[in-house]
Amino acid sequence: MTHLLVTFLFLVAPPAEQDDWSRVKAEAKKAIRNPVPRVRRAAVEALSGFDRKEAAELLLDLWSVSAQRARAMKIEKFDKIKEMDAMPIKKKLQAGMVTLSGGEVQEKQKYDRLKAEIKDLTARISQEEGIKEKIRPALAGMSGEGAGKILEKRLSSSKDWSVRAAAAGALGAFGGDNVREKLEKALKQEKDPRAVVAILEAFGGMRAKESLPAIAKKLKKNRDWQVTLAAAQAIQQIGDPEGIGIVISLLKDATGRVKEEVNDVLVEMTGVDKHGSHATWLDWWNTNRASLAAGTYRKPSRPKGGAKAGGTTFYGIPVVSNRVVFILDRSGSMSSPAEWKPDTGVATGNGGGGGKAEKVGDRKIDVAKYELKKAIRALKPNVRFNVIFYNQDYMIWLEEGLAVANPKGKKDAIAFIDSLEPEGATNIFDPTEKGFLIQERKDPRSKKDPDIGLIKGGVDTIYLLSDGHPNNGRIIEPGAILAKVKEMNRLRKIVIHTVGVGRGINVNFMRSLAEDTGGTFVHRK
Fold it and tell me: In terms of CB atoms within 10 Å, which end of the chain has fewer, N or C?
């Protein structure tokens, strides 16, 4: 009788794991509706211990909530930044003028209030993005069939592009032919370039050579520059020789940074360098395709083909982008003597379109201005650019958009550069974020989805110069700045080249900022 009772209790009593799951599931469902980020973060951490269909479903629901909340706060934040930047008091404060009169006192109070609200929104957005970063590995670590089915369902049916992107990334970790086929179907249907990038990255991680035809077909319809680069990088990861022809096709209409990076992928895959020439690469492909397919092609130990094509540089870093923003330090320390000076003789003067070679001054700011004007004067007419100088705040040359690099645009930019003198503190994050927000053209969808316009028409390269440590702004701690830039850049793919001048810079920070975004760091002592 006792034996029968023990058996009965074993059959009807849930195991400890089932008890834990029931509790975690109930708490997670409550957390989805909770506005406090730490509550939802705790739910994510608890769900991460379960490889279940319902766990995957709840994690994606939590992802959707954080994505929606972050999106709403970004819209609010960007509107406040725009309002603050348009205030007349900003220029007076940026110039270091502290004497206020009449209505300026009230305007300054409003300015300070907006500044505090923007800083608070920045922190709150990061909390929501941090929850998503916790969800990402939790989904990728699942392997159960039930979890996989939920991911496939959300990939094909979710109305939120970020949920589709998250599902694609997690499925890439699952692998297998069935998953690959689901991703191929999703790629065919997907219209949002951010989700397309996530699917391409999944193919790269899976080394899915069978997906090359699907990738090639998608590229005929979607050529956003982030998609082009993601495809090239995924094909490089896949490593199948047949992918070389697809990468070569990307050069047909490529310019600027895209052309340079696609060519770099081809150099890595083939061991030769044709300097971005579509016709020359096509000839090479027609000659070597058979040996590549047969496995008899011998990759040279180093690229052959001569030196890279020349162009303008900024502190020795090539400027190859067609949509670029230069961000320069004008804090008080930039008035100190410069130890490093460039070779002179290049006309940089006030005309913008010609003139005599300009004499370089003795201060770090003088050298920085010289290098910037030299770079701007040499920009090609198809380039779009903008300029930001910063101290405790920032001053942007064109408040909206990017200027055409024609004689008038260059002349106006140089006049702006010449008008500024060094003073104040060092605020690195705020102007960098402003650079991320600049669009070549407005996208009406940005009112509801602030990132889409930046994906379509934003800058692709930033040059950032500093001579010190960040000590002002919405984010000051170097590690926190690096984390925030990674967060902002996950799907933007902006390259940040960094220049440190003098001996007072935070070398590790400036180098990491460049390396994390695929840029170059130079130190001019």
Answer: N
